[in-house]
Structures are given as structure tokens and as C-alpha cells.
Amino acid sequence: MGDLKRAEPESGLDPVLDASDSDDEVSNPNGVRTISDRRRAQNAKFRSWLDRRMETVIREDAKQEMKAADDEELSIRNLMAKQESHVIISDPREYQIELFERAKAQNIIAVLDTGSGKTLIAVLLLKYTIDQELENRGMGKQRRVSFFLLLTQDKVDSVTLVFQQFAVLECNLDHKVERFCGAMGVDLWTKDVWAKQFAENEVIVCTAEVLVQCLMHSFISIEQINLLIFDEAHHAKKSHSYARIIKDFYLAVTDLSKRPRIFGMTASPVDAKVNVVQAASELETLLHSQICTTSDISMLSKSVSRPAEEVAVYPPLKAPFETPLHQELKARFGDVGVFQGHFLHSTEISSELGKWCSDYYWSFALQEEQERKVERRVERRFHDTEGCKPIAQLDAQIARLKEAGLLVRNHSFGLPERVLDSLSSKVLKLYDWLSLHFERPSDARCIVFVEKRHTAQLLENVFSQIGGPNLRTGTLIGTSRSTLVGIKSSLRQQVMTLIKFRKGELNCLFSTSIAEEGLDIPDCNLIVRFDLYKTMIQYIQSRGRARHRNSKYLHMIEAQNPMHRQALGEVQRSENLMRQFCQSLPADRLLRGNDDALERMLEKHRGGRTYTEASTGAKLTYWSSLSVLSHFVGCLPQDAESSARAIYVISRQAGKFLCEVILPENSPVRAAIGRPSTKKSMAKCSAAFEACILLRKGKYLDDYLLPIYTKQLPAMRNALLALNMKKSNMYTMRLKPSIWESSQGLVPEELFVLILDLTDGLDRPHLPLALLTRTRLPEFPWFPLYLDSGKKTMVRTSSLPRSFRVSSDRLDQLTAFTLRVFKDPFNKTYEHDRAKMSYWLAPLSASQNGLRQELTPVEELIDWETIRSVHDNEEFKWTKSMPNDFLTDKFLIDRWDGGRRFYSKGVVPGLKALDPLPEDATKNKYNDNILDSTVSLWAKARAKATWDLEQPVLEAEKVLQRRNMLAEPEDKETTLKTKSYLCPEPLKISALPTRIATMCLAFPAIIHRLESYLIAIEACEALDIKVRTDLALEAITKDADNTEEHQEHGRIHFQRGMGKNYERLEFMGDCFLKMATSISLFTQNPDNDEYEFHVKRMLMICNQNLFDTAVKLKLYEYIRSMSFSRRTWYPEGLKLLEGKGANKTGNEVFKHSLGDKTIADVCEALIGAAFLAHNKQDSWKPEDWDDAVKAVTNLVCSPDHDMHKWTDYLKVYKMPGLLRSAFVHPSYPFIWEKVPSYQRLEFLGDSLLDMASIAHLFYRFPQKDPQWLTEHKMAMVSNKFLGAVCVRIGFHRHLRHNSSIIEYQIREYVTELQEAERDSNGARNYWTTVKAPPKCLPDIVESYVGAIFVDSGFDYNEVQRFFDTHIKWFFDDMSIYDTFANNHPTTHLHHILTNHIGCRDYRILAQEIPSVDGSVAQVIAGVMIHDEVAAEGRAKSGKNAKVKASLVALDLIKGMAPFEFRAKFGCDCKPSEEDEMEVLQEDLVGSAI
After folding, report:
1. Beta strands across the sheet bearing 1428-1435
2. What is the DSSP-derived secondary structure letter of residue 1393?
3. Are the beta carbons of 1069 and 1161 closer than 8 angstroms?
4. Rounded CA gap, 915 and 912, in Å?
5. pLDDT above 70 as % of the chain
6. How far is CA 62 from CA 67, 162, 631, 1412, in A?
7. Interval 579-602 mean pLDDT
């Protein structure tokens, strides 16, 4: 049920439950099983329900996705599945069979044109290999699997390629095929998961990097693979994943028979301007294969349609020029360094594409989102420059950037025109060709290849306006990040563009090299090389897209440009040379001894350090560190503000490149800087390598270089730190303060006086008592007693500073008087032993009662005459000679019934002993007459007893035996009869005067409370802290079984009369504990990041640690968990001769049942008491918090907090420059300004703001319980509110970050917030009506508070000043936030179930379930009521899933009456409200105490 307690930040999920599962448990009030048993049973039921539900969920999701009419709503997998069949040609051509036969016999690299059917050869080879594999398994050989490997490249998303190739193989193989890529989360899988996949499938389609990871982590060995198919095999070079598979794993197997067969596919073995023979030889060497192609090229030409190649010559381009817009921008902003590249591009575009495109380019370059990127670049350069410059200079530069952006956005670009003044001759020539091909509606398709992304975008903009009605244009560009924000593409956009192109919705694509290889693109009628190829393979691959009959391949060449003619000639000659080389290779050629060549190649590309884990052999290299780090980062929880990826920032220092890698905020290692390198790629690898080493040293990577957790970072932080609230152990309880025991055994010669009196008297006249002790007692707080009439009176004590000498005789008299007090009112007879007395009681002289006590000698305050009278007279017995006046105002005792005591009023004339008992009198066991009612003897004794029948009759008041005067009387206690009629002869007439006896009857409650105070003081002394006595007792008082729950469910087994319990102090102490440990960690650990702070703080403040410390200190002995008891208030050490318990030997050991969490909570309450005892609300001084600091140190018992006074924090801290750090977002690279991010300050400021907010509420609302305080504190420290404060102050303008996402989120939030404030008509809670802010905004406020606190020398006054200035105003009227916390569905559900319905047996559980297409997993949450799942919700996170489940549950029970709920859900929870008063343990007027 703790899951529903209140809205909390999302935590990670374990297989079923939240990390907080062990917290806040509430047992079934009617069950007999323990809470743990019930939770285990509920977990099992939830798993069973989830197993059944999961299958249904997956089927429903699959149906739902495939039903979607709009392709835009489908997943990638279903988009691919929805397309036409991928069955390939069933009858292979002769050249395909020829290469297939070669591939069966040896490793080959098949060189064939794009579209010539290389995939069919791969299918044939897979069928053959699988058949051979099945035969081998029949002979008992090891199971092996085939891999079809695809490129991992930036420009083509790997998901597209994997799903595309999988669809083809799945349609053409009879055996099970599966596909994997990094985007499907496979890097989070374990060896067992992979083993299952390898056992169930014959063919795996995946990116090469996936196989590298599996081999690196030993999920599979190279011996378990029978076939490796390399698509686009020409990429196997240097550090490519293809090359790493061969270098690191394939060649490591020396037994050639255990190596897998290799089949490579490519359109050309060469992809660069290099020597064809040398490049082909190196490729053969690296892949350990032979290059093969068809022996008869004519067979290929008959099977594969080849386009007619034409050359389109366009007039010479104009020289680059500056347009009027360009000139204006240059005139006004030409000196702005970050614009220089744009000026260059704009000039180049003027020549290549024309004036209109040159101008329109600026709309990309200076759009609003891009503008912020430029601003950050300017800021970075400004701070990188040596020397101190005024910040106004930076502000002026940024203002000019904004001015330039505004100029471009206000510019009218017009429409492009088909004239040379608007477009270049090159574009116009392209227009001519496209006009010819798309003159009329047709099924023709065209791809225009360009070199640059902005060229593709600009041409699409041009031809979408001038291309005519039959030309439907689109762009196909890579998914890598662009320098121009407006020119970007996602995986879905790529897939959707190709689908539209295949359907004919688009018929002309302007594409970069992405369309050259890999992607499955429909046959085209026209391919245009608008920008010429740079390598021969680009030429071959792009030409292969023109496979339609009568298709054309157009080379666009500038007239009078010899370089264009040369480029065309070079690629054609290179192709011929490559063809000749491949065809000249003898068919029976054996692989030559390539070992030496391979070794030379390996040596050439060797570089960087390596790390090998000795225990497992897992190997980390420079290149693999990138993927290991990416894998680790992928396991971290994501937030809406930043993606889970590492950011690499490269700078140049001393002629070399230096790289810093920045990890997400919740990573245990936040950043690492690599070693300088001459290459950017090596610098990047070096930074990743250093980060991996740090992670391994911190044991965040295991022995296999895998993360030690998966998507459970928050749960890991709290693991095993929570405690159970249920009663789990019996602990000894200290009944008496040690001050009594320590002073016993000695006969005192002097005594100290503590005067006991009552401010408003008792129900009868009384006299004060003196409590005499061997040592002086402290002053005690006043506390209330509740009289039989219901009236409240306050006990007032006065500890006199002076002692008085006491003689032996007087000590005997005091002892006799004290023992008489125990005997007459309470029926206990103790042995007379002065040395064993804990204290003595004495009446005060009536004449000394008042203000003269401090002026009178101490011994003269005592009524020694009354003491001597009591000492000399055991009792007074009635005789006939006793005058009636003597019987007035006497304390009478029933000799045989210890529970009957009376105050006499006087003799009643006219009544006789044998007269009937009056109707208004109290009844006894025998009530025939007045004498009969007076005598308590049993029948036999009564028969023998004889009484004087002439004795008088007294009217008396019966004493009610309500000892617990610390609690208010119940109604029935105030209506009991007390009037009595008695005969004096059977009764004992006490020597104690009635006014003294009246005070003595109140003494048990008084001494119980005083002893509790003394025990509380001793608890504080055990911690070496000074705490006000009332706060000390409050801190250790537990008055109900569920005090920890702050009365959320009503108090269980509530014990009346114990005073305030510890719940408010625990709430305050928890806050101070968090703040103190945060400050300590901040000061002592300058190298720790926020993650380490959180972990270390949790280890200190967690309940488990506090409990362990408390047990060592035996604090459980001091906890007050029992209210006043008639059996325990008597002094210890004296031998009881008569009365209940007289037969017991030795001191009784009392134990009480405490939950572990109760003990931990008391620790926090003691800290809260130490804080409140000295804190001055309006005037803070460091020394005021010294005791609270010391309490924290003594209770956390950790070297991370060893301070004993406030100033100790400052002694261990070296103060850096802080203000700028407070505004540096974690995404901002450290190497740019050498200023750390605000995370450490935010950690500190968060605890300080918590302290200020909670203290404000605590003092302002002294009667509110912690639940109310917590719910209203949530508003004051919520991200939603602090984000509004950030904007109100204007802090958001100063944030330094490196994220366009953050920039967009801030802008949207600020706009919405400002509109809400304008429309609020002055309402101070306007911020509650807007969406949640980007997390960086509240972070800035917290970090700023941390900064001013540290900068002021840890002066908390600065924190308070910030709170009073910027926060307090919003919360003058707290009532407007009464529903703030309850607006959260989970909290609202909790209140409905507990308060309205009275159900306490419910929980929310959550677990991840796999997604339909293997992308982002879902979480399903269930609301379980009485062990049955009543409502469910699904989302991408546990937090949102619980919210959805709560909303469903709320809708389900909305308007339902409690009896309807009980009937529907079988709820049998019994109410545990406070009005169920405890059953009185003993009768009010029963037997003797």
C-alpha cells in the first residue's frame, strides 16, 4: 500500500515491484499472516495475472497497429510488413548458380552490379548451409547458426536495413529467421536471452555491431557460427565492425575447420580513389576470401537491365556572387565570426543553384532554433578567449545575432523563376530533363543525386514550385545530425519517404548518397547525377538504381569544365579495370599465403590502449570502448529533457585534439577527458576509453564489461535501505530513570526539593507536595492533568536550588510518611529501608504555600508536624468516645477491599447503621442496609463479625480509582456515582489529611510523567545533546502502533495520555538530517558528482543505518510506547510486603514491541528536537544549530558526517567561484569554460530549500500533522513551482547549455507561464495551471540557493532571505493549495480508499512487458484490491503506468458507497479510527491497585 501513499518521483522497477516495496506496509487488519507473507502472495498473484494479461496485451497491440489506416501511425516493423511481398526470383540465373557453387566451396566476395541478384545467391547459400547444419546435428555435432550482417552507418538507419533484409529472408527461407539491431534494445540483453535466440533460430539478420558485441561479451563464440554473410563487403577495412569481427575473433580461431564460411557481397571491392588491384587484394586479405564475379559478363547483361548513359551539358556557371540580401547581411554582420561559413556557403550556392537559392539558404541558417546554436557557439568562443572581458561584450554579440535572424525572417524571398537571374544554368538544365520525363502523368520515378544535404532541400523547394503538376518531389537524406536544424531526417521519415516513392505518391527524390546503397528502392526510370560521383563505387551503385527498362543514367557536366570530363572518364576506366581484374582471376585460384600481408595490415591500423579483464578475458579497446560506453549509457533512465547518449566535445590544444565525453546526469561518472591525439577519431575513442575505465574502477561495469544494472538506477540507490514498519522485535524498555538507581544504597544526609503543585487545583482542596531527592532534579515543563470532572489543571514544578540537611530521625519520619502514601491511598506495604528509597514525599506547610518559597529556608517549607503525626499514628480507629466532629473531612479506607477509598463529609443526623441504604448512594456487594454496604467481608467472615449498631452514619464521597489522570476522562467516567453512606467502625481512618491524600492520589500520574521526562533527558545525554525537556519526551513518544503513518489510517491501539508523539519532530528531523548530510558531502567530497552524493547521503540517512546506530546506542530502551500503568509507577528497589505483586522476586524486566522503522524514526525525531530546542525562527546564528549537527553526527555514525558544530562545515571547505557554475547545465562541456555544472550546487540547494519551506510550515501551523505538512510542502518545493520562480526572477535567460531540446522546452514553457500569469487576475497560484517546466529551470533555482549559501560562508540567513523574498509571497494563503497533492491520481485514489471507503488492503504493482516491434518496452501497472487486480494502466514508464491505473481505478469506484465497495471487492477491513477507544485494562473502581 506504500505505493499509493503520496505522489513521488519515479523510481526504477524490479521484476515486479518498486524499490520502495518494503516501505510503509500496512497489514491486513483481519488476517493472520504476516505482512511479508501477504506481500509474497500478492506478488505471486500479480505475476500470474500479468502472464495471462501479457499475451492478450501483445495481441491487442499488434491488431491495433495493423488496423491503423494511416501509415504514419504504424511501427517500423508493421510499415515494412504492410508493403508488398519480398519474394525474389525463384529460378536463379546461370551466373548466380556459378557464384553459388563457388561460395559452397570457399570464402568468396561476389562482385555484381546493384540489382543483379546478390541476395538470391545469399539465399541459396543459406539454404545449403542450413541443410548441412541439420545433417551435422544429426551426427551429434555442435549447433551452429548463420549470420546475415548489415552495415552500421550514419546516413542510413540500421533499423531500416535490418527490417528490410529480414523481410526478404523470411519470405524465401523455410527455417526460422530473426532480426536484431541496437535500436531494439538488444544491448540490454543477457547471455541467457541471447542463448535462447540462437537456439530457436537458424538465421540471424543483424547489424555487424550487434555481432561484435555478442562476441566481445562471449554471448556467442565464432565456432558457433557456420556462415557469415557481409552485405556491402567493401566496407571491411580499418576499424569497421566487419574488420573487427575478422581481426578480433575470426582469426583468433586457429582450427580452420571451426571457422565459419564467409560470403561477401558488393558492387565493387573499391570505394575510394585508390589502386584497384591493391585495394582488392587488401579486401581479400582482410576477409580471408577470394573476389569472384561472373565469368561471362554477357550473361549478366542479359539478366539485368542496364540504363542508357547520357551526358547533359549545361552552360558554364556564373562566378560566385553576392546577392543583395547577402550584401546587406555582410555589411551589417560581416565581422561576426560564426557567420563566415554561411557567407561562404551562400556565395557557393549563388553559382551552383542561383540567386534565389542563395537567399533561401539563409532561412535555414538563421531560423530561430538554429539561432540559439549560433549563440552558444559565440558564448563558447567568448569564454575560450584568454583575458578578462566584460560580459556586456558578449551580450552585444548575441544581440547582433538576434538582429540578423530577425532580418532574415522578415525578408520576402518570393518564388523561384525559370530564368538565369533566379536559378543557375545547372538547375535550369535539370528542369528541362525533368519536364521531359514528367510532361504527362506516368509511373516514372526519378532520383536526383546531390552531394550536400542543403542542396537536396533547396532543389526540393525549387521544384515543388516550378516542377509542374506531374512532378511530386521529396527529399531522402541521412539521419545524422545536421548543422542546419531545419535540414534533418528521422528513421520514420526515411521509411515513409520510401513507401510514398514506392506507391507513387512521390516520383522524384532529391537524395544524398543514402540512396546509393543498402536501401530497397524501386526501379527508377531516370537517375540524375546532379553532383558527380567522387568514387567509382558511387558511380556503380547509383547507376544500379536505374533498373527499369529503357531507363536513363544522366551525368550532368558543365561545359568547358575539364574536371567534370575527367571525373566521368576516371570512373568508367576504373570500372573497366575492376571488371578486367575480377574476370582475369582464375577459377581454381587458391588463397595465397596472406599471413604476412595480413600482419602488415593489422600493424598499420593498430593503435590505442587496451584493457583486459583477467577473470573473464573481456577485452576493452579504443574502438570497442565507444560501444561499451554507449551500452552503459543506454541502460540509464531517460528523462524528457535529455536523450540517453554520450556527448563528445572535441577541442584543439597545442596542435592536437582533446575530447571530453559527457554522460547523462544520472550516470555515476559524469564526464571523462581523453588523451591528446593527432586524429579526432582517436581523441574520441580515448575519451570513451577513459570513461569506461572509470566505470570499471567504480564497479559500475562488471567482469564482462556490462552495466551492473539495467534501467533500475533509482532503485539501486535505495536498495536494502528501507525498513519494515511492522512490529518485528521485542526490546527492553527502561521504566525508571537511572538517576534513581544510581543514588540508591546510600543513606542521604541532605536532600533537594522539587515542589509539586497544580495551577487550577483538583476536584477537592489539596496541598502541594515536596518530592525530595538525593540530587537536584531539573525544572520540568508544565503538563496537564484531567480531573474526574473533565476539567484540566496544569502540574507546576519548582526545583529549589538549595538542599537541606536531614537528620536520621527526620529521614525515618520522611520514609514512614512516604511509605504511608503508598499504603493508604494505593494499598501497597513496602519494607522500611531508607537506603533503598528512590525519593521521599513530604507535605508542604500551608502557611508557606505561595511566593515566599524561595525566601524561606528549605526545611521550613515542609510540614514536619503532619509528618510526625503520620509517623506516630498507623491509623485512627472509631470508638464510642470519638466525637462526631473528628469524623469530618477524613480519608477513609476499606480494610478488606483495596479499591474502596472515601472522603468523609460528616455525621448524618437521623440515620442509623441498620437503616436501608439511600437510593442516591453507590452500591457495594451487600446492600441490605448502611452497615451491610460498608462491610466488604465475604459471607463466612461477615457472619462472625460483630459491630456496634449504635455507631453514627457518615456521608462520604467515594474516590474514583482513575489513575491515568494524564488522559481526558471518558464520558462514562464523569457520570459515575460517588455519594456514599458509611459506618466508621469497619473502616480505617487514615492519618493522612484529606488535602494531602487528594494530592497523593494525583501523584502516580505526576511521577510517571516526571520519570518519562528524566528518561528523555537521559536519551539526549546518550547523544551528548542538550534538548528542551518537553521536546526530548515528544521525540521518544510512540502512542500508537502506527505512529509512523501520521494518522493516515487512524491510530491503531492508541494509548491515551502520552502527550505529543514524535511524528512532527521526526518530520522536522528528517529535513534537517537531509540538509546536514548534504552540506557535509558537498564540503568534504569536492570530486564527487551528484550521483555519488545521492548514494552516500542515502547510505547515511536511510532507515537501516539509523536503526543500526540506534541499536548500538540502545535507544530503544528510552522510547515511551506505554501509557500510564498502575503497575509500574511505584519506585523500584523496595521490597513489597503486601499488595498485588508481593510474591514477585527481583525487579521485573519490561519489554515492548517496536518496529525497526519506529526506532529509526525516533532518531530523526531526536534530531528534530535538537533543532527546535535552540532554533530562533527570525534570527539565525550558527551556534543555534550545533546540537542538531552533533545529533546528526552521532546518529548517522559515518565518516561522511563528522561535524560537531555548524562552523565545522566551513572548516573543511575550500570555496571556488560559484555563481557561474550555478547556471551551467550538465550538457555544457566542461572543457569550454572549465566551469563545473550546477549539479553539485543543485544537490545542496535542494536540501536548503526543503529546510526553509518545511520550517516555515512547521512554525506557522503548529497543530498540523506531517501528512498535511508534507502535502503542502510539495507545492513549495515542486519542480512546477520552482520553475515558475526561475522565470519570475529571470534566471532562465542566463542558463548555459548545449541542447536545442532544452531551448525549445524553455521557450514554450515561458510563453505558457507568462500567459497564465496575465490571465490570473493576481492569483498567486497561477503556476499550477500550466504544464511542468523543463527540469533545468527548478535546478537553476536550487543551485543558485546552494551558491549563495556557500558564498556567504554557510550563512543560512541568506537562504532564509531568498525564501522570504521570492517564495513566501506565493504561500500567504495555504488553503489555495489544499488540493495540490490530491490532484495526483495516485494520491487521490489513496484518500478515497482510506478515508471514504475505509479499505486498507490495496497496492499498486508494475512490471515491464515487451513491445510489439521490439522498440521501447511498455510498463503495465495494476491496482490490486484484496489480492485481485481491479484496474490496469500501460505506459512507457512505471510512473505513468501507475497514474493511468489509478485513473481507471478512480473511475471504477467513483460514487460508490462503502457498502457497495465491500460487496464488489470482498472488502472486510475493519475501521481503525481514533474513536474506537482502547478497552480499559482494569475496572475504574475495582480491586486495589
Report:
1. 1402-1409, 1418-1425, 1428-1435
2. I
3. no
4. 5
5. 80
6. 9, 20, 28, 6
7. 54
Cell of 985: 467502625
CA separation for the pair 379, 397 (Å, rounded) = 9
First to last CA, the chain: 43
Specify the pLDDT at position 646. 84
Q: Which strand ranges, in their side-by-side order, compose the sheet holding 308-314?
A: 308-314, 552-558, 526-529, 446-449, 508-511, 473-476
How many helices and strands, by DSSP H and E, does the chain display?
47, 35
Helix locations, 883-958, DSSP H: 930-934, 939-944
More confident call, 1305 vs 1076: 1076
Other C-beta atoms closer than 10 Å to the C-beta of 1300 total: 15
Would you state the pLDDT for residue 1332?
A: 83
Per mean pLDDT, which range of 347-351, 363-367, 670-674, 996-1000 is the poorest? 363-367
Q: Looking at residue 848, what DSSP letter applies?
A: G
Contact 291, 111 (CB under 8 A): yes
Residue 837 CB coordination number (10 Å):
25
DSSP state letters, 369-386: HHHHHHHHHHHHHHHHSS
When pLDDT is cut at 50, 70 and 90, the band that residue 1072 belongs to is very high
In the sheet that holds 979-982, the strands lie side by side as: 979-982, 954-958, 901-907, 891-894, 987-989
pTM: 0.60
Per-residue pLDDT of 526-540, as tens digits, reads 999 999 998 888 888
pLDDT band at 725 (very low <50, low <70, confident <90, very high): very low
Count CB neighbours of 732 within 10 A: 12
Helix (H, G, I), strand (E, B) or coil at 108: strand
220 contacts 198 by C-beta, under 8 angstroms:
yes
SS3 of residue 337 by DSSP? helix
Alpha-carbon distance values, 414 to 328, 364, 462, 1281 (Å): 17, 16, 11, 46
Asked if the model's pLDDT at residue 813 lies above 90, the reply is yes
Contact 1447, 1433 (CB under 8 A): yes
Question: Running DSSP on this structure, what letter comes out for residue 224?
Answer: G
SS3 call for 519: coil
Query: Under a CB-based contact definition with an 8 Å cutoff, are residues 225 and 275 in contact?
Result: no
Alpha-carbon gap, residue 658 to 34, rounded angstroms: 60
| Residue position matching grid coordinates 510499415 | 79
For strand 901-907 and strand 891-894, is the pairing parallel, antiparallel, or unpaired?
A: antiparallel
Sheet holding 177-180, edge to edge: 177-180, 203-207, 145-150, 225-230, 261-266, 108-111, 290-292
Other beta carbons within 10 Å of 427: 25
DSSP three-state, residue 1480: coil
* Amino acid in the structure at residue 986: P
Residues 470/441, Cβ–Cβ less than 8 Å: yes
Closest CA to 61 of 1279, 1175, 1416, 1051: 1416
Answer whether 110's CB lies under 8 Å from 264's CB. yes
Beta strands 225-230 and 145-150 are parallel
pLDDT at 1046 over 50: no
Q: Is 151:207 a contact under the CB 8 Å cutoff?
A: yes
The one-letter amino acid code at 984 reads P
Alpha-carbon gap, residue 1144 to 1000, rounded angstroms:
25
* Dihedral pair phi/psi, residue 611, rounded to 5°: -135, 125
**Range from 238-247, 1120-1129, 1436-1445 carrying the lowest mean pLDDT:** 1436-1445
Query: How many CB atoms within 10 Å of residue 105?
Result: 8
Here the contacts of 1271-1274 (C-beta below 8 Å, separation 24 or greater) are: 1271/6, 1271/1380, 1271/1381, 1271/1382, 1271/1387, 1272/1374, 1272/1377, 1272/1378, 1272/1380, 1272/1381, 1274/6, 1274/7, 1274/1380, 1274/1381
